[in-house]
Amino acid sequence: MTEGLDRGGGAAIDDAVEILEIAVPVDGALIDTKLYRNAGTPAVAALLWMHGGGFSGGSMNMPEGDAVSRALARGGVAVLNVDYRRVPPLSRVRRWRGGAAVRFPLPVLDCLAAWHRLVDEAEPLGLAADQIFVGGASAGANLAVMSTLRAAGAGLAAPAGLLLAYPLLHPVLPAPLPGAGQSLRGRLLSRVARRSVRMMSANFVGAVNADRLAEAFPRPEDLGDFPPTLIVTGEHDTLRRSGEAFADDLRLRGAEVDLQMELGVRHGHLNAPASAPFRHTMASFTTWLGAHRA
Fold it and tell me: Which positions ≥6 away from 44 have C-beta within 8 Å?
């Protein structure tokens, strides 16, 4: 199945899920990915998955990457979990002392390279190209959307659909809906979130490329013919409006979009794999994938 792939390590089997480490070349570098599949049954679909972390944190080994991939693989979905390059951490007191700083669009290009690898592997997995989906959580959802748009701009085949968990899809958070009552604490948290998102977005592109900020987030005018999309938000997530506003933009352009809200959760509930909201979201993902795969 995986002949010809560069491997960062051997295959492992845990809980009936086979995991193969794969190094994907991009721009003269190698990014790490892990391919998860059910060891006992053929794959019914494939998913490229990106974790969150504000573009600067997280990894494919955090629950939002690993636990999500395992859960979907148990259901028969082959998942390529991507450890894209991350930008320097946002900090007032700490300077970046690493090599040349990663900025947009490098993380998007990493995800696009991983997507190409997953498409190349579709036939060995026993899948058609139209059974490949793309998804991510938080900042990873942004990378899922932006790699989809970049692929479309290059004339490449679109994914069969997108799975987005509590996505960050705006450089400035949309304002609350008119008439949406908020407590004093809620309004304060909303202001803090809006400021944090502005800083995070600016850090993603970097000061030198500040004029490219709009390129790093989906623009409504670019969403024509966008693939079917499932968006899961959190009831108490300060980023909830970003997912809702993106769903509105998709609907206005005639795209198929399913917007669901996980009750009682804040941002990042997929990092709690033992919780009921995690299981419920995984069930929603699995059901939606089953309804949209070829």
Answer: 76, 77, 131, 290, 293
Architecture of domain 11-292: 3-Layer(aba) Sandwich (3.40)
Q: Domain spans of the chain?
A: 11-292
For the packed helices 276-292 and 63-74, what is the interaxial angle rounded to 10 degrees?
A: 50
Highest mean pLDDT among 13-22, 37-46, 92-101, 226-235: 226-235
pTM for the model stands at: 0.91
Neighbours of 23 (CB within 10 A): 16
Q: Would the pLDDT of 50 be above 80?
A: yes
Mean pLDDT of 32-39: 96
> What CA–CA distance (Å, rounded) separates 234 from 208?
34
Q: Return the ∠ at Cα 156 (arms to 75 and 201), rounded to 5°.
A: 80
Do residues 176 and 241 lie in contact, with contact meaning Cβ atoms separated by under 8 Å? yes
- Token readout for 100 is 């040349």
> 82: which strand partners?
33, 50
